[in-house]
Amino acid sequence: MTSSCASRRNRPDRLFCYGTLCLPAIMRSVSGCLPPASAATLPGYARYCLSGCDYPAIAPLPAAQVTGVLYHGLGRAQWARLDRYEGHEYQRRRVRVELDTGQRLWAWTYVLRPRFYHRRARQGWSLAQFRREKLYLYLANRHYP
To answer: Which value, in Å, is the radius of gyration of the alpha carbons in the chain?
Structure first.
């Protein structure tokens, strides 16, 4: 059985998500599908709140690691929608993530561009807190691609 995102034959590289896109409702709204997913960790990066935003960003930090979701099987249309959603503050970067099984895989992720580092807040970002306090407003007020 193939996902509604892309067939196995046309599968591009994977996407590691660490923020709002970890939530199925948001991923489906943004990309137009809900691809197969696995829990994953990205070493060498830290997750930050961004001043005035409900979503996070990551930036390199050698001793840190970020937990998230690894999506598989996105097609070109989904990548275009995701690029629009992430906007000019982020750049898509290829990284090595680790699955819970210890397997390491290459994936793409969206990393905060250095010229926007000044927007990083001191506190970290919590998916559980976002889900509890902001998800319903975020879904109601966002206009996805």
So the answer is: 15
